[in-house]
Design goal:
- There is one protein chain.
- The protein is α+β, with helices and mostly antiparallel strands and 374 residues long.
- The protein has two domains: 169 residues, no CATH class; 126 residues, Heat Shock Protein 90, CATH 3.30.565.
- It is built from twelve helices and six strands.
- A six-stranded mixed sheet has the order 4-5-3-2-1-6, with helices on one face.
- A hairpin with a 4-residue loop joins β4 and β5.
- α4 runs antiparallel to α5, α6 runs antiparallel to α7 and α8 packs across α12.
- The protein is rod-shaped.
- It starts with 5 loop residues before the first helix and ends with a strand.
- The relative contact order is 0.07.
Length: 374
């Protein structure tokens, strides 16, 4: 639904109008049309015309509620014409004029409804001057009913438009949330697959060298590990897309440390592992995966330290290696880490002066420590 498209917007307005919801109440009010029967002489001809006019009135009301907004003026105009014609027979035509004003207030935009209201007021005054009905029987109920019920129609139109705009806003919010979720999944898959594909490439390269050296047993072992990595990656991709956590922070940290050791790094794990909210844990796991991938790709070092520290107001996770990198161009991986941490009010700091250090900081509201020892 687009509120900028008048035809679509007004069609939604008509479909949800109060007239549909409480139709039986409106039909009860229409019986005021027959009140003059009780204080006028009985006349078969006039009363037959009154009944026929009432049936036509019902048909026109139903037609109005089922007509496209661009053409609703035609049945409303027909209802006004019916009121003018039946006024010769009964002053109860004031009921028809009142209903016409309700529909005018409900369906027309501001400029048009002012013109329609003015025209209806002139019609009422003209009929009163022409037929000279007693004021309490025609002009008074016609004018007061037209003003009151017309305002009800205007208020109902405003209320429905406000509701539809709110629905449009909620729809836009949901669409933005879907876009954000797709971007999150894209970042997660990039970080996850970037790390895993690097591992697969290293394993395949090592297995190829061993097989060329006819070290078949060791080569087969690396191929078996390669198969396991691929299967684990498939499982993690499914979990990431489904929004589930992986194997937990402790399990992922152990896995990353083993990955580094398999690639000839000496790894030191220091500090106390925290317990985090699901969102914060996922963000930290993916950040550590991406940083580990950077170490495997770019570091020329041989030692790596992963340190967890916490104070009353924040958690600090530092990954350092003894390789020397003069400069580091930030690609999609590091930008994804920064975006994910920024959503948690966290940050990523990079220090390449003495050795390569990546520091992740998260505020304390994302964690509660349970004393897991690294």
């Amino acid at each position: 639904m687009d509120t900028r498209n008048p035809s679509t917007f007004d069609k939604k307005l008509c479909d949800s109008a109060e007239f549909h919801r409480y139709g039986w109440v409106w039909w009860v009010f229409s019986l005021y049309y027959f009140i003059p029967v009780f204080y006028t002489p009985f006349d078969w001809f006039k009363h037959s015309i009154m009944i026929g006019a009432y049936v036509l009135f019902i048909v026109l009301c139903v037609t109005i509620t089922n007509t496209r907004p661009q053409r609703v003026w035609l049945p409303i105009g027909s209802l006004l014409l019916l009121a003018v014609l039946v006024t010769r027979v009964t002053p109860g035509s004031s009921t028809f004029l009142t209903y016409a004003c309700f529909f005018i207030g409900l369906y027309f935009p501001t400029r048009q409804l002012i013109l329609w209201f003015a025209a209806t007021g002139l019609i009422i005054l003209g009929l009163q001057l022409y037929y000279q009905y007693p004021v309490p029987y025609f002009v008074f109920p016609a004018l007061t009913g037209a003003i009151a019920v017309g305002c009800v129609g205007v208020i109902e139109q405003f209320r429905q438009r406000t509701r539809l705009k709110e629905q449009q806003s909620h729809l836009e919010i949901r669409q933005l949330a879907m876009i954000a979720e797709r971007e999150r999944i894209a970042r997660d898959l990039h970080d996850l697959l970037g790390h895993t594909l690097s591992s697969i490439a290293l394993k395949a390269e090592l297995a190829e060298k061993l097989l060329k050296q006819e070290k078949y047993t060791e080569g087969e072992q690396h191929l078996t590990e390669l198969n396991k990595i691929a299967r684990d990656t498939l499982s993690l991709v499914r979990q990431t897309v489904s929004g589930y956590k992986h194997r937990g922070l402790a399990g992922e940290v152990v896995q990353l440390c083993e990955q580094l050791r398999e690639n000839h790094f000496m790894v030191e794990l220091e500090g106390e592992l925290p317990q985090l909210s699901a969102r914060a844990e996922t963000a930290l796991i993916l950040a550590l995966k991406e940083l580990t991938t950077n170490v495997l790709r770019h570091s020329q070092g041989s030692q790596c330290t992963l340190h967890f520290a916490h104070t009353e107001d924040r958690l600090v996770v530092t990954l350092c290696d003894n390789g020397k990198v003069d400069s580091l161009a930030e690609g999609n991986g590091l930008r994804g880490i920064r975006e994910r941490l920024h959503a948690l009010a966290g940050s990523l700091t990079i220090d390449l002066q003495e050795r390569s250090c990546f520091t992740i900081t998260l505020p304390s509201e994302n964690l509660s420590f349970a004393g897991q020892t690294a």
